[in-house]
């Protein structure tokens, strides 16, 4: 059973708003990596932002958070920065207080009587604005605030005012706009700024989404970035690096936040008391939107080495260990998703080969590693960047023509390996996508064309495992007061267990989440809970499935919800007809 008095594993409840954005995806990767390595169970509850949202179904889904208490988890991690994005600190505190009998970690928002893992919002925003003032002589700096009452929004706005005061730059109300962390609000605030004809040097937005909205509006109105105006964001989301121009922003250590939260909550469960808060540092990411062409990490290391006493030595006498030490200090490996030890070993092999210490090892090793990515869907962009990095590091030996010649030949062959692998990878991805689309369309067609509950259960069990769902459970609330004390299990599919569900379903206590006799709790598990909801109505149940970041869960959840609703309506119509 899920209750943890019968198992040695700790079970952690995790409240997040969605799985469909960069922030939550990276946060969950941190949770999941720690959970797997330390044999911890994880229950991800996707209940949307609290109280207010542009999508009513998200606000209705808040009731899912009421499913969690001491009967099914040992500790709770709340992504309060995202849950509280549309509400006030007071309401957020009231929400968290409901779980005061559990060890709690709050992520991103500092709450009283709670252990908090925070990002240094203040220093991050100060670093960013200092850069555009000192580096680009910006003086009239417009600021787009985040949601009113939000903790992150408040801290970032305070930092804006602080740094302007330090540089004796007047704070002008006409340059300050109220946004709400969405791209549309960034566009609207920028449009208002332009319509009023207010002069400005830069737009600083409290997050990347609003900054990207500002960029869209500026470009639409013929304002060149960064020539006519600078734009900066905050968060370093995936899209920020691919915007046009790429966005100068602040990187949050989101993955590390997930790791630290899991580590801290397990410690709190063990020690049975609150722990000290953790504040993680941010990093200024300089890109073209502020007018900079950033120096790469590799170039900065080489330039630092050129100015050191070691650079006076002959190129071949360069101490490789010293280079590796400098690279480790630079955090350059954070740019890559693969194991840093692997990248370091490959670099050592490359340097040894161009300096004649070994032969014909690097390319064999490189090819093996690159080809290994195909079945694991890793990103080839990292390998292209790695060859560029290696080319820069070969400049340590720039005065030795033999080393440079070897480097050019080796890296040219490495690029050919990547190009060949890209062709294989694209074919593999295309086949996989075709199969996924075929399976998805088949599942949706079958779900939407059946109005009998037992048939929907059968269809789910046959089609969803092909899309990566190892197990699926759907339960209906059994009463009008939500969430109900009891629920009825109506769909139960497990690829490793041939469980036969009766036609009438199975009634069980809702807080069990999954009935005791159905789900194997002996093995470590991570599962996701989402609401069963039709259009913008109040949820009528919940859907549980295995954690897998690649699952197209949103589409399946929506169509499964609609299919089940259709089955209930069909059943009611038949009852009326029979009368």
What does this structure look like?
The chain has three domains: 294 residues, Rossmann fold, CATH 3.40.50.2300; 127 residues, no CATH class; 129 residues, GAF domain (Beta-Lactamase), CATH 3.30.450.40. 44% of the residues lie in helices and 14% in strands. The protein contains 17 helices and 17 strands. Helix 5 packs parallel to helix 6 and helix 14 packs antiparallel against helix 15. The two termini are 42 Å apart.
Summary?
This protein has 3 domains: 294 residues, 3-Layer(aba) Sandwich (Rossmann fold); 127 residues, no CATH class; 129 residues, Beta-Lactamase (2-Layer Sandwich).
How are the SSEs placed, and which strands pair?
Blueprint: E1 11-16, H1 22-37, E2 41-46, H2 56-60, E3 75-78, H3 80-83, H4 89-97, E4 104-107, E5 115-119, H5 121-134, E6 141-145, H6 151-166, E7 176-178, H7 183-195, E8 202-205, H8 208-220, E9 230-232, E10 249-251, H9 254-271, E11 278-280, E12 283-285, H10 297-306, H11 320-330, H12 340-354, H13 362-371, H14 381-393, H15 401-448, H16 453-463, E13 471-477, E14 486-494, E15 506-509, E16 526-532, E17 541-546, H17 553-578
Parallel strand pairs: 1-2, 1-3, 2-16, 3-4, 4-5, 5-11, 6-7, 6-8, 8-9
Antiparallel strand pairs: 10-12, 13-14, 13-17, 14-15, 16-17
Helix pairs in contact: 1-9, 5-6, 7-8, 10-11, 13-15, 14-15, 15-16, 15-17
């Amino acid at each position: 059973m899920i209750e943890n008095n019968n198992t040695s594993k700790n079970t952690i409840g995790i409240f997040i708003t969605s799985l469909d954005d960069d922030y939550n995806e990276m946060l969950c990767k941190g949770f999941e990596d720690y959970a797997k390595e330390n044999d911890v169970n994880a229950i991800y509850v996707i209940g949307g932002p609290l109280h207010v949202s542009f999508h009513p179904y998200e606000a209705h889904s808040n009731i899912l958070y009421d499913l969690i208490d001491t009967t099914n988890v040992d500790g709770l991690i709340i992504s309060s920065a995202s849950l509280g994005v549309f509400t006030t600190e007071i309401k957020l505190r009231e929400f968290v207080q409901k779980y005061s009998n559990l060890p709690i970690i709050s992520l991103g928002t500092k709450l009283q009587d709670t252990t908090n893992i925070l990002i240094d919002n203040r220093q991050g925003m100060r670093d960013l604005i200092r850069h555009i003032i000192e580096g680009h002589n910006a003086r009239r700096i417009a600021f787009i605030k985040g949601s009113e009452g939000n903790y992150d929004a408040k801290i970032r706005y305070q930092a804006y005012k602080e740094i302007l005061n330090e540089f004796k730059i007047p704070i002008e109300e006409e340059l300050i706009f109220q946004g709400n962390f969405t791209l549309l609000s960034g566009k609207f605030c920028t449009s208002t700024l332009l319509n009023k004809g207010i002069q400005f040097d830069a737009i600083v937005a409290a997050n990347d989404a609003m900054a990207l909205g500002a960029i869209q509006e500026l470009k639409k109105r013929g304002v060149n970035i960064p020539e006519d105006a600078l734009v900066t964001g905050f968060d370093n989301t995936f899209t920020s690096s691919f915007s046009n121009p790429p966005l100068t922003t602040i990187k949050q250590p989101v993955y590390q936040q997930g790791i630290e939260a899991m580590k801290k909550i397990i410690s709190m469960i063990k020690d049975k008391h609150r722990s000290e808060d953790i504040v993680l540092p941010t990093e200024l990411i300089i890109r073209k939107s502020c007018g900079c062409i950033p120096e790469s990490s590799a170039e900065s290391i080489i330039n630092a080495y050129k100015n050191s006493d070691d650079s006076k030595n002959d190129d071949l006498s360069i101490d490789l260990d010293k280079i590796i030490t400098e690279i480790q200090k630079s955090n350059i490996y954070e740019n890559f998703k693969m194991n840093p030890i692997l990248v370091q070993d490959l670099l050592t092999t490359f340097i040894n080969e161009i300096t004649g210490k070994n032969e014909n090892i690097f390319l064999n090793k490189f090819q093996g590693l690159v080809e290994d990515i195909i079945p694991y869907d890793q990103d080839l962009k990292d390998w292209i960047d790695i060859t560029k990095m290696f080319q820069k590091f070969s400049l340590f030996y720039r005065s030795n023509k033999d080393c440079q010649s070897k480097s050019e030949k080796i890296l040219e062959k490495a690029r050919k390996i990547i190009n060949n692998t890209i062709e294989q990878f694209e074919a593999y991805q295309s086949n996989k996508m075709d199969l996924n689309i075929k399976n998805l369309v088949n599942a949706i067609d079958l779900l939407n064309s059946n109005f009998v509950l037992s048939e929907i259960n059968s269809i789910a069990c046959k089609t969803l495992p092909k899309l990566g769902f190892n197990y699926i459970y759907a339960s209906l609330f059994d009463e009008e007061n939500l969430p109900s004390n009891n629920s009825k299990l109506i769909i139960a599919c497990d690829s490793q267990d041939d469980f036969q569900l009766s036609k009438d379903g199975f009634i069980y206590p809702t807080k069990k989440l999954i009935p005791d006799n159905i789900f194997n709790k002996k093995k470590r598990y991570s599962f996701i809970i989402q609401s069963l909801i039709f259009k913008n109505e109040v949820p009528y149940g919940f859907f549980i499935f295995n954690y897998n970041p690649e699952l197209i869960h949103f589409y399946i959840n929506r169509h499964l919800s609609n299919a089940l609703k259709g089955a209930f309506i069909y059943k009611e119509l038949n009852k009326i007809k029979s009368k």
